[in-house]
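Backbones bend. To wit:
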Amino acid sequence: MRFLVDNQLPVHLARSLAARGHDAVHVVAVGLDSADDQTVRKRAEMERRIVVSKDEDFFFLANRPGDAGRLLWIRIGNCRKTASMAALDHSLDAVVAAFESGQRIVELS
């Protein structure tokens, strides 16, 4: 899978996804650390990437009629980086399966 990790999530998340065999980049690595949500979403769609974000705005963007963007919506409350990373690591196979089955929005909570 191809992922674009949004700014509120750590760079380490992109590295962790890459270590698990996915093509994952963080917005900082592609010069989008100051970009607005629309720009990030457009870049992800152009590169056929799934946005990984905690930002509810991406959920609203992905739910607009005709939108083809995909989103891994991280809904884990404020917690330490290790806890959120562990939750994603534990659920990653199910997340990948959901996207492979055609889901456009997958929520991790």
